[in-house]
Amino acid sequence: MSEVYGETAASVGVVAYRVDVALRDLTRDAVIAAIDEFDSVGREQFLAKYGFAESRRLFVVHEGKSYDSKALAGAAHAFLNGRAPLKATEISGGWRHAAGVLQRLGFDVVDRVPAVTVHELVRAIDKLRPATVASGPMLKQAVVLLWAIGRAQRGADRVLTWERTQAELIPLLTAHHRSGERPEGRPDYPIAALCRAGLWALDTSASVPTAHGDARLRRWFDEHQPDGGLPEPVYELLLSSGLARVQVVTAIIDRFFDDFDYAAVTKAVGLQGDSIADDDCTLSDEGAGNGDPKRAYQDLIEIVTSREASTRGKRRPVVGNDPIRLAAARRAVILRSGGSCENPACGKPAPDHTDRGHPVLEVDHVSDIATGGRDHPVQMIALCPDCHAVKTRGRSRHQLRERLLAVARDRHEAWTGTAAFAAQAGQASRHT
Ligand SMILES: [Zn+2]
Questions:
Q1: Measured in angstroms, how far is the CA atom of residue 336 from the centroid of ligand 1?
Q2: How far is the CA of 245 from the centre of ligand 1 (A)?
Q3: Ligand 1 centre distance from Cα of residue 332 (Å)
Q4: What DSSP line would sit under 52-74, residue for residue?
Q5: Which residues surround ligand 1, an ion (CB under 5 A)?
Q6: Distance between CA atoms of 114 and 111, rounded to whole angstroms?
Q7: Which residues of 2-41 are buried (b: 16+ CB within 10 A; e: fewer)?
């Protein structure tokens, strides 16, 4: 992971570039000459000749073509009178160095933010090794991540100054921790750990010290005052995809909270209500599942089912009060509805959409939780406001409920492919 985001820290925000001494004489003409050579020999040979690796993120875009920024800056030096090319070890890439110099010479430098998958993110979370106290893993890294995910969900700024980061995190860390967690209320510890895991990016070229248990870390943060936040690709994913958010939050809860009631933390950071699982349809046209709603439905069902299982038999059960499970279940039902009332006698499209582009439909538990209903799409249904009113208060509500129970089950089976499986299982049991 950390390799994937290696350059993120240097690309945060716009900074006043210090001129890299090695590059201060570079001219636009020399860079154009290097571009010409790049074009004539090709990328592979150009990089080999000057001894540079491929750029991962920062490219000069010139007349519609892109060029590895650091290699270009190093090679361009050969086109200055009486100069030799600079070696890869003699200059630094990044906005503060080669890329920044090229930009100041009037070139377009673009940052190709690498995409990150939910799978990579979940794996990085599983690999976190928080210190433990008697009751379980310390919560600070989880609190920092959940806070940042809450911000991503709201579309709040990804990067904050160190001062603001502290102002927001100290009260959260002080309020939400296991007993015995030390040092209390200090964001520098969890943020340093998350940096090392590739889950946080700081705007500084200095590396975060690995020291634990002394004042060195605090001094380092006081001295550098680094702006920071989630790495950009992580933030983008968590901003746009509700499915990713639910999967990542679930991974954090599983990794850190165990039987500790996480709902107070998720509430404090604004991760509550259906919007946890909602895609921002105004950002991604296709919404969840990369345009494959059935796949997204199945992923959401997996979360609902795993959360049902994980809250069973715990000392502090949150059954019936699991905001992540409920949000995932409701999102699944909305996906399944395709934006129209699921009452087969109606089928009307939703009367409007929300600001985030979601159909305005009521997601209803067909059976009340109190009478044994589940937070599970197999027992939930999306209804237009009219049908919802009939189902709640109408004289025909009892018959309607029976019908809707069957509809919810049938549609769920059709979307998960379990109908065929159930038929098979039924056949098998008849044979035995
Ligand atoms: Zn309806």
A1: 15
A2: 30
A3: 18
A4: -PPPSSEEEEETTEEEEHHHHHH
A5: 341, 343, 346, 348, 384, 387
A6: 9
A7: eebbbbbbbbbeeeeeeebebbeebeeebbebbbebbeee
Residuewise pLDDT in 10s, the chain (432 residues): 333 333 333 333 333 334 456 788 899 999 999 999 999 999 999 999 999 988 777 899 999 899 999 999 999 999 998 889 998 878 777 777 888 899 999 999 987 766 888 899 999 999 999 999 998 999 999 999 999 999 999 889 999 999 999 999 999 999 999 988 888 889 999 999 999 899 999 988 778 887 666 688 889 999 999 999 999 889 988 988 888 999 999 999 989 987 778 888 999 999 877 778 887 655 433 344 445 788 889 999 999 988 877 655 454 444 456 888 888 999 999 999 999 999 999 999 998 887 777 788 999 999 876 667 788 999 999 999 999 999 999 999 999 999 999 999 999 999 998 655 544 444 444 443
DSSP annotation of 209 reads P
> Cβ atoms within 10 A of the Cβ of 173, count?
23
Query: 334: CA distance to ligand 1 center in Å?
Result: 14
Taking the complete model, does pTM exceed 0.85, yes or no? no
Rg of the chain (C-alpha set): 27
Give helix 216-224 / helix 188-196 axis angle, nearest 10°: 90
Q: How many angstroms does the Cα of residue 394 sit away from the middle of ligand 1?
A: 13
User: From CA 75, how far away is CA 31, in angstroms rounded?
Assistant: 8
Say if CB 311 and CB 317 are below 8 A apart. yes
Polymer length in residues for the chain: 432
Q: How many of the other CB atoms lie within 10 Å of CB of 317?
A: 13
104 CA from centroid of ligand 1 (Å) = 60
| Residue 382 Cα to ligand 1 middle (Å) | 9
Taking the centre of ligand 1 as the mean of its atom positions, its distance from the CA of residue 340, in whole angstroms, is: 8
